[in-house]
């Protein structure tokens, strides 16, 4: 079965929704214009219930099918990034310093397309819960919605989400039956020495030298402490210190990220960061403190749900266009919290090669809008068929 015909006929409408959303990017949980647009469309479609205000601007819309049955959840993220757009688009961002650089405008438009189709046809049993989530990029709107009881309040039994992929051919799907995206943590090491004149280093305790030694030593965690068959990334991304060429500063700050799939590997990495920090601090006569922030957990697909999602994707795109055992990526996603709360699957939908997500010239490919909307619609119809059909 190719793209659902009714949804294919909505292509111009889905594109118009997406391009409008692209002009009004909003950050974090401050997605008021976006949520208002979504709610207005949902009312036009005639969905049965609209519940607003989750995680400040999140929405859950309910569409009832034919007869009794379970509830399936479909999620789209709505927020943008604090970046200046550089692509010369007719529908470029009208909010300075903000842009839809990750395709969440496309994700929202795809779910709206599925919502319109499902509200019209209702060829499923039970209910579908359409989850429009803010704040994926910042502090975890997905976690907040789970904590606010979305899964329990609407009795959601399973949940699915899609993310676009600029590195894969347009219209192709990829997923796997386990960890697909990593846990993402942040660390900062605050080093304190004794500042002074750069011409008299013997009268100082230099935190910069100590910081450089720590950065070098941290690289050994992956190469010498971690099982090479496990996935681990430790990247130092910031070093801040000093104000002048002739002053040895008093302090130095090192910042970075840790990416893991395995909790034991994560614990080992944290332990070694602490040990290396303390050892290097003692070696150079400085003091050091670690601020470690645990971020999103790994995004883990349930095998049965992933296999089912791959079947549905094959109906839409063809078997040759679905990779059901893709290599996990070390990026992170707060849909992980929803998959911790309920079984489900997270898929990538190829949009063709182009600027990567989080690039100032990134733009969602509107050609794949009906493909994603069709997947969302068919996952509901297949998971919860009407009795006797």
Summary of the model, kept short:
The protein is 35% helix and 24% strand.
Tell me what the structure shows.
With 389 residues, the chain is of the alpha/beta class. The protein contains twelve helices and 16 strands. The protein has helices at 5-8, 11-23, 32-45, 104-121, 141-147, 150-153, 207-218, 220-225, 263-284, 303-317, 335-341, 369-383, and strands at residues 49-54, 58-64, 71-77, 127-133, 156-165, 173-174, 179-181, 183-192, 196-197, 232-241, 247-248, 251-260, 287-293, 299-300, 322-323, 344-350. The strands form four sheets. Strands 1-2-4-3-5-16-6-15 form an eight-stranded mixed sheet, with helices on both faces. The protein has a four-stranded antiparallel sheet with strand order 10-12-8-13, with helices on one face. Helix 3 packs parallel to helix 4 (104-121) and helix 10 packs across helix 12. The protein is elongated. The model has no long low-confidence stretch (mean pLDDT 97).
């Amino acid at each position: 079965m190719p793209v659902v015909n009714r949804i294919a006929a909505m292509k111009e409408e889905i594109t118009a929704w997406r391009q409008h959303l692209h002009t009004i990017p909003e950050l974090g949980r401050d997605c008021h214009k976006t949520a208002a647009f979504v709610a207005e469309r949902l009312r036009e479609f005639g969905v049965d219930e609209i519940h607003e205000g989750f995680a400040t601007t999140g929405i859950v819309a309910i569409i009832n099918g034919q007869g009794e049955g379970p509830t399936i959840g479909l999620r789209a993220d709505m927020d943008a990034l604090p970046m200046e757009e550089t692509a010369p688009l007719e529908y470029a961002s009208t909010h300075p310093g903000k842009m839809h650089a990750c395709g969440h405008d496309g994700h929202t438009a795809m779910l709206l397309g599925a919502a319109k189709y499902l509200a019209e046809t209702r060829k499923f049993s039970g209910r579908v819960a359409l989850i429009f989530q803010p704040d994926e990029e910042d502090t975890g709107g997905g976690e907040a919605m789970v904590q606010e009881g979305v899964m329990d309040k609407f009795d959601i039994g399973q949940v699915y989400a899609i993310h676009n992929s600029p590195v894969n051919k347009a219209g192709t799907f990829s997923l796997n039956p386990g960890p697909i995206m990593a846990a993402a943590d942040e660390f900062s090491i605050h080093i304190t020495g004794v500042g002074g004149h750069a011409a008299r280093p013997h009268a100082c305790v230099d935190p910069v030298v100590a910081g450089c030694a720590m950065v070098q030593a941290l690289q050994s965690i992956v190469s010498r402490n971690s099982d090479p068959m496990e996935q681990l990334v430790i990247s130092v991304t910031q070093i801040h210190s000093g104000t002048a060429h002739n002053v040895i500063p008093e302090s130095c700050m090192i910042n970075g990220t840790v990416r893991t799939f395995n909790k034991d590997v994560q614990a080992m990495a944290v332990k070694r960061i602490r040990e290396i920090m303390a050892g290097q601090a003692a070696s150079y006569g400085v003091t050091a403190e670690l601020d470690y922030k645990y971020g999103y957990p790994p995004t883990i697909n349930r095998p049965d749900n992933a296999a089912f999602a791959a079947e549905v994707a094959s109906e839409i795109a063809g078997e040759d266009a679905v990779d059901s055992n893709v290599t996990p990526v070390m990026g992170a996603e707060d849909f992980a919290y929803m998959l911790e709360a309920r079984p489900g699957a997270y898929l990538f939908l190829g949009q063709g090669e182009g600027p990567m997500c989080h690039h100032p010239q990134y733009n969602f490919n509107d050609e794949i809008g009906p493909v994603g909307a069709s997947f969302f619609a068919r996952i509901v119809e297949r998971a919860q068929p009407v009795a006797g059909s």
